[in-house]
Amino acid sequence: MHILDSSFELVLHKGFAGVGLQEILKNCGVPKGSFYHYFESKEAFGCVLLQHYIANYQQRLNLLWDNTDSAQHKILRYFNMWIEDEAIKGGWAEHCLIVKLAAEVADLSEDMRLIMDAGVKHLIEQIALLIQHGEQDGSIHVEADAAAVAQVLYQMWLGAALLYKLQKDKTPLYQALQATEFMLNRKTEN
C-alpha cells in the first residue's frame, strides 16, 4: 500500500508522535479523505504500519533462514544483518521500526504495543527454535533453556541497537555479536 510504504521512512526517522497527519498526507501525496477511507485514525494507521512492517520483516527472515546452513550460522547471519545489510544500505538495527517505536508508543497506544509485543514474541520463539535445532545439529551448545537464551539475546541486541542510535557508533552491535557467539558456544564442564 502506497501510504504505508511512503510513510515508513518518515515514521522511522521522526517517530510516531513526531509525525503529524498533515506531514504523512503531504509525504505520500494523498488527500485526507483517502487516508480516512483506509484508516479510521492516525493510531489505526500506526497499527497497520506495524503489522505491515512485521510481515515484511518475517519475509526477510524466511529468505535469510531458508537454507541448509547450521542453526548457529543462521542466527549469526541474522544478527550480522542488524549491523550491515547491503540491500538496505545499513543494518537492520537502524531500519527497525520496533527499535524506534517500542519505548515511544508502548505508553501511548495499547493496540500498537500489543502488535509490537506479539511480533517480538514470535521472533524470540523463532530464535529459540533455531537454538534447539543447533543443539541437535551440534552447532550450538548452551547451558540454559533455549527460550531463555533467545530472550536474553533479543534483549541484548535491542539494547545494543539503542546504544548504537545514541552513540552513532556500531561498537555496541559488534560487542553484542561477540557476546552472541560466546553464548551459543557455552559448553558444560564435567
Automatic annotation (TrEMBL):
Domain (HTH tetR-type) spans 1-57
The answer, when asked if GTP-binding is one of the entry's keywords, is no
- Cited Pfam families: TetR_C_13 (PF16925), TetR_N (PF00440)
What InterPro entries does this protein map onto?
Homeodomain-like_sf, HTH_TetR, Tet_transcr_reg_TetR-rel_C_sf, TetR_C
Q: What one GO molecular function would you report for this record?
A: DNA binding
Quote the DNA-binding region ranges, renumbered to this chain: 20-39
Q: Does the keyword DNA-binding apply?
A: yes
Designated name of the protein: TetR family transcriptional regulator
Species lineage? Bacteria, Pseudomonadati, Pseudomonadota, Gammaproteobacteria, Moraxellales
